[in-house]
Amino acid sequence: MKKMNLGFIMVGLVFLISISVLSCQANDADNYSQQAEDVTAADLFIASEAHQNLEKEIRKNMRRMLNAISKFSKEEMEQYQQLKKELLSLETRSEAKKQWNKLLGYDCYASLYRISNLVREVYEGIDFTRLELMRARQKRKMHQVVITRTTEDDEAIQNCIKAYSEMAEARIEDCVNQYNRNLDEIPINISWKEYSRLEGQCQVQLDECTKPIHEYLENGIEACEQSKGKCTILAYH
Question: pTM of the full predicted structure?
Fold first, then answer.
């Protein structure tokens, strides 16, 4: 009788283990299915080689500008601040652009318009909203290594600067994409003079969008360096 009871117990244990294994496998399958369903068009866009190349181009352009600004004298920095204001006025913009490029030592706007063309190519045919794009960026960020700022060393500072740079890159990309949209909305059946005026307004709007981002990045880098990488990373809105 005891042998029979023991046999039933063993059979019962095997049955329970089998159910448990099948349940785990089912859960794994459900999780995998859920993960597959969670991959959106925006996720694929963010991960694409074309978009990564776009990010590299924006990053290179930002580094070039920051490198030029870091070498400014006190007088050049004052001129830089003044030119930023003059660039936002259609009356002073033309001459300010010349002085701006001269001050930086390269054609800043040629680089920006090159990025504009690249954004147009990369974004062609996309089928998702800006909100979905922002979620995809956040999702990618969550899967990256978490930044820690517990040590006062160069690595912590660089990680801090990288966090600020990534946010700035994304916002500049948004600005340029909106600039392209604004250009596309200019009517084609108007005079060349009127088209030039409206195009100039779009360029001013692009400057209004990007200039605060550069200031955000400059201030962020300064905060990272002064705090030795321990400062709170402030989001750009």
Answer: 0.74
